[in-house]
Write the structure tokens for this entry.
Amino acid sequence: MALPVFAGEPPVAGLTIMTSRFGAAEQVVVPPSALFTFPEALPGLPDSRRFVLIGDEASAPLFWLQSLEEAPVCLPMVDVNGLQVEGYAAHLGQVLGAEHDTSRVFVVARFDSLNGGFLVNLLAPVVLDRHACMGRQVILEGQSFPLRRAVRWNAATRMFMASC
């Protein structure tokens, strides 16, 4: 199954990978533009530096960042364009500057079974530069954004919104 990752991208031959993002192993085909190298490893994942971004229109703005070195490592990610947290997008634009215009920015998410919703890491967004095929995690030092922020899915707007 071909998974469109970037809107408007022409169809090209893809790379077939195995992922177990939903528990059972499955094959997915991803375009070359979905491959990213992290020169600096993500915190806690020193053995994973090559990743692929998996997602499609049906699951957007939720995506998965699958490690190519460690098959069990598959991080749920929320595209910040699908996240409504007051002041967050504007702040990222200031911090990232021109890089914000040429990259896609995501926050790492996880499902919190205690509250039945998602928690997102607003303190350390992940920046994926599709032109350089590079990724990095940015630590927003000295900011009031939390490491774990509860968000809820709004099906009508197809956005994650900050919980009260």
Notes: The first strand starts at residue 15 and ends at 19. The helical segments are 88-96, 99-102.
